[in-house]
Amino acid sequence: MQDYPKLLNSASNKVGFTMYETWFCFSPAKNNVNDALACVNRGLPSFGAAQAEYDFYNWNNKMLRIAGVDIPESTTTTDCAGVPFNFGPKILLEPSFALTLQDLRDRFGPGCSFKPAATIILRERASEGRYENLIIDGTVEASTKIDYFKHFNEDFVVFVPVEADDKEALRIRGYKTANRTD
After folding, report:
1. What ranges in the chain are assigned the alpha helix state H?
2. How far is the C-alpha of 165 from the C-alpha of 139, rounded, in Å?
3. Rounded distance between C-alpha atoms, residue 130 and residue 147, angstroms
4. Spatial distance between the Cα atoms of 34 and 32, rounded to a whole number of angstroms
5. What are the DSSP E strand ranges found in the chain?
6. Is 0.85 topped by the overall pTM?
7. pLDDT for 78
8. What was the pLDDT predicted at 124?
9. Are 67 and 101 in contact (CB under 8 A)?
10. CA–CA separation, 162 vs 168, rounded Å?
11. Domains of the chain in sequence order
12. How confident is the model at residue 154 (pLDDT cuts 50, 70, 90)?
């Protein structure tokens, strides 16, 4: 990627670039949990698996806020192998649900609010129509238009620290999921 502009380095080739804020487009998952903690201790981003997943959820939260959905910042800290994260709602929006900011604005109208502990997965046909006064405080997984009696679950998905005997696939993240009922 970095070498391509060098190849075009001549008077007849013009090279340009677009710059975005880091939260919008850059979150590598390249460090193991020990290296991630060492980075954090030096004041750097961890660039671990937990950071990448946190950044993914944070991206969705920020885009939904820009689209007008009320999403408060989380104050609950999750320990991910020594690295603290304040996960807010864990939101997965498939591209078939909304691909652009305008799509998000078209899907969510006034009064929509997602609480900090919510877990939300929205797929294709859940994008049919517009949601207004939709408040999600729990878990929702929908592939069709959201129906309270069909899609809502009052169990919360929370992240908890891993233990030494957990599978390696969980230990590399530094946390695992658990259910909590309020």
Report:
1. 3-7, 22-25, 33-41, 49-66, 101-107, 148-151, 168-171
2. 28
3. 13
4. 6
5. 78-80, 83-85, 90-93, 113-114, 119-122, 135-136, 139-142, 152-153, 155-161, 175-181
6. no
7. 85
8. 81
9. yes
10. 10
11. 28-181 (2.160.10)
12. confident
